[in-house]
Specification:
This protein is α/β, with parallel strands linked by helices and about 290 residues long. It has ten helices and nine strands. α6 packs across α7 and α9 packs antiparallel against α10. The structure holds adenosine monophosphate (AMP). One of its GO terms (biological process) is pantothenate biosynthetic process.
Length: about 290
């Protein structure tokens, strides 16, 4: 006879989640938060593993946040796989999964108070998805208040998100540390994403354009930003099924595009539609 498999505890309300966290904190435990929208993959699990290293108690939130989806985006088709997510987290030492309803998170409905992401929030992802980063920062701020973690883990996969979360933490004096975890990729380079499941076999091959463009950018780094953009663009444009959205080289300190002739650390951001699915990726490179 096999022993019953322990299921990860699920808190559906803010009160339940706070009860779990408060009890553990009263015993002196430190707390790490891993915010997600679910449909968990190895990238998310890498965040959980890092959180386990950094704190005694790990809370994973699973919430598809309507505030960060624009009209006509994929809110309705975004995968919701709570049972599979709980199974994936089983045995990973997660104290509780916070999986609230939309009404629990936004009792005031769409008229709720928002965090404003500012100038960088309207560039790149923010230009293609107006309001996305205000919605993202709003839910992250709420999660920080609900969980009150010592540390929160985010993926480098969403580089602009990490930049904006770090800036919100500094600007609004949230008392926690932000930990950034490297992007987890498939063996051929494709960054893991909950949206990859929507790619047909042909789209899946074409989706390599993103990571190939980043590799080309990295190789061209020593020749400067113009060469980086030219090489990455050529790799990016090589697949017919790919409609590029943006390709930009930014300064990691400001997240604004680097000037011609810039040297040192930079981040290349790419986004494209592959079939019906929008994908993003990024890489740190060295210029000059
Ligand atoms: P999401 O559920 O897609 O909103 O992502 C939740 C968190 O997981 C975010 O901090 C993402 O940056 C992170 N994440 C998503 N994909 C990856 C990946 N391939 N590698 C590392 N972290 C990731």
């Amino acid at each position: 006879m096999t022993a019953a498999v322990p299921r990860t505890r699920v808190a559906g309300t803010i009160a339940e989640l706070r009860a779990v966290v408060d009890e553990r904190r009263a015993g002196g435990a430190s707390v790490a938060l891993v915010p997600t929208m679910g449909a968990l993959h190895e990238g998310h699990l890498a965040l959980v593993a890092r959180a386990r290293e950094l704190a005694d108690v790990v809370i994973v939130s699973i919430f598809v946040n309507p505030l960060q989806f624009g009209p006509g985006e994929d809110l309705d088709r975004y995968p919701r796989t709570l049972d599979a997510d709980l199974a994936a987290l089983d045995g990973l030492g997660v104290a509780a999964v916070f999986a609230p309803t939309v009404a629990e998170m936004y009792p005031g409905g769409a008229a709720s108070t928002r965090v404003v992401a500012g100038e960088v929030g309207s560039l790149y992802e923010g230009a293609s998805r107006p309001g996305h980063f205000d919605g993202m920062l709003t839910v992250v701020a709420k999660l920080f208040h609900i969980v009150r973690p010592d540390v929160a883990c985010f993926g480098q996969k969403d580089a602009q998100q990490v930049f904006l979360v770090n800036r919100m933490v500094r600007d609004l004096d949230f008392p926690l540390a932000i930990e950034v975890v490297p992007t987890v990729r498939e063996a051929d380079g494709l960054a893991l994403s909950s949206r990859n499941r929507f790619l047909s076999a042909d789209d899946r091959r074409a989706a390599l354009a993103l990571s190939e463009a980043l590799r080309a950018a990295e190789a061209a780094g020593p020749q400067g930003v113009e060469e980086v953009l030219a090489e990455a663009d050529a790799a990016f444009g090589a697949h017919e099924a790919v409609q590029p959205d943006y390709l930009v080289v930014v300064d990691p300190a400001t997240f604004l595009p680097v000037e011609p002739g810039a040297t040192g650390e930079a981040v290349v951001l790419v986004a494209a539609r592959v079939g019906s699915t929008r994908l993003i990726d990024n890489a740190r490179i060295r210029l000059g």
